[in-house]
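To close the chapter, one final illustration. This time we ask the reader to focus less on the individual chains and more on the assembly as a whole: which components sit near each other, and how the overall shape emerges from the parts.
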Amino acid sequence: MITLKDLAATLGVSVSTVSKALKDSPEISKDTIARVKEIAKELNYRPNTLALSLKNRKTKTIGVIIPDILNVFFARILYGIEQESTALGYNIITCLSNESFEKENNSLHLLANGSVDGFIMSIAEETQSNGEVKHLKETINQDVPIVMFDRVANDVECDKVIIDDFNAAFKGTEVLIKEGRKKIVLINSLGGLSVGKLRVLGYKKALEQHDSYTGEALVINIDSNEALLNDQLEKIITEHPDMDGLLCIDNVSGIMSVNIAQRLGRKIPKDLSVLGFSSDEISHLSYPQLSTVTQHAEEIGQQSVRMLVERLENKTKGHTTTATVDFTIELRGTTLPN
Amino acid sequence: MITLKDLAATLGVSVSTVSKALKDSPEISKDTIARVKEIAKELNYRPNTLALSLKNRKTKTIGVIIPDILNVFFARILYGIEQESTALGYNIITCLSNESFEKENNSLHLLANGSVDGFIMSIAEETQSNGEVKHLKETINQDVPIVMFDRVANDVECDKVIIDDFNAAFKGTEVLIKEGRKKIVLINSLGGLSVGKLRVLGYKKALEQHDSYTGEALVINIDSNEALLNDQLEKIITEHPDMDGLLCIDNVSGIMSVNIAQRLGRKIPKDLSVLGFSSDEISHLSYPQLSTVTQHAEEIGQQSVRMLVERLENKTKGHTTTATVDFTIELRGTTLPN
DNA sequence: AGCAAGATCTTTAAGCGTGATCATATTTTA
DNA sequence: TAAAATATGATCACGCTTAAAGATCTTGCT
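The assembled structure is written out below.
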């Protein structure tokens, strides 16, 4: 690695002269500046980011903690985070909590010592169901800000980026109601997560509020293990022959349900209307293509970065914000054309 | 942030005493060690990684460059990388090249200045098709080692982790041949990538070598844009009514083909046997579940980390290795049971 | 012309947080 | 009481920035 010292030595000047020359300081003569720059280029000098970070007490690096990178939703959020950070001149250190509290906790401690300027994270399932928040509060108290997205801890005071899950499910359910469906079922594989709970509430509220819907509300909880998903869904579809509307609130069960229902002889969307929750790319995997409540995952990521950087660079103390990112409902082939 | 200085001040001893005490130096009295440790714990002291990195000239951080995080294959590799790095005490800085040469190049330059000890990467499509290697060679020459996985640059001398793509396609094709299929088609959406080319070669070789196969080889190149995939596949399946074996060499077109073919009235696997290339989780999305040539993505990631760390810690100079990670063929529902 | 006061350019020194080496001070032992 | 053991402190270096000091050359004024 080439350092300022090396440049100084080859030119026979002092380190500080080189340093100043490289940033066009008016203190340094045009001539010297030119000479320094030339040799710097020739030797392919790059300032050592570590040294700069140490000096400036900031790293221009964001710690990102993702619960599950194999979930397209999170992968896409990471994509958004990466894009926006790069645009704003930040790097990201990515940690995968793998839904484990311990890993999440470790990552936080490992990086909250000057390695990153702040965190962007969605909390692990385990953390959420156990209601663990100490590690989060501690980090914030040490002046390392956190922005939480999607899965947030309500009793931690920090910036947040969420979807209006209640409303998303509400509007989604309305789509099915307005089609005149008589038995609309919600399949829930999100277990103890707050987002799942909110979606169930939105679904129930919509059914209640529309007099045109005369059926019952039926929420079926299933195991989220993907290997078991096919069998569970097949069982549900078989056991509910009169089901004509289906709301799947996770990424993949909508796709699977469409494929299974068709194999079992249901016409989609005629006999059964299916609405999933996910982003575009996965909806292509079924035929007809899955209609979805689309969460703008990329936007969630970008927004999170913007909020964190705002806080870092303007030193916004106190006063936290919660941003809600819009959802859209995209009707493709598994619901009736309107 | 709490520093050694802070601890020293509160205890009324010197910084070096604190530093030594924290690492149980025999130079320091039991008594002082205890006192230092107690207050360190109380104030929640964590050594500043940045300062350590600067001092030790190594960061214990790996730069990871991924072409496309929305591709499950890469997401899963990242998963493996993260697991193994954490296990070996390394952090990862993740950059997404998004298949662009420029982003790849930038990331490399941005981090190859002491920010990371080495890189693990798969080169961007653009980089590969243009045959750009200067940035890679430069990095290696600056003594920052690179491990490439999956998509590798043949004329760059570095450690590599690959799949035996030729053989994977060869064996996969053999499965279909042994079923007695008469018209086996390969659908290629991987365009200019080396892996795609190797798979096509393996397929052709298998067809040639088996006298029992009397049909032709037919490679159909398609656009990889997922939004267009459905239509393209439907067209292919419609136009080739006599096709009875299908090899899809990317992640998703196998799934789509199965769903489309069934909708068009083909019985799977009776009329048409389909074999995809992907990892487990995505194969669940079709019914019957897709039979696949499974690439052990996680293992590829882990192996890459092991090779890099080996080089970093043992200062293995010169002498590069290429590791081949096994593939397995997993017959699920879209091929005949054997 | 003579010389203080600027103007211009360069170097010195300190500090970011650590750890290693070397030096110093205090106590114990032979 | 000198030598050895014990405990602590001072200093430097990692690569960089920056305030302050130093050195050299111009300028302006009597």
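Residues 1, 3-5, 15-16, 19-20, 23, 47-48, 50-52, 54-56 of chain A lie near DNA strand D (CB under 10 Å from a C1'). The mean pLDDT of chain A is 94. With these observations in hand, you are ready for the problems at the end of the chapter.
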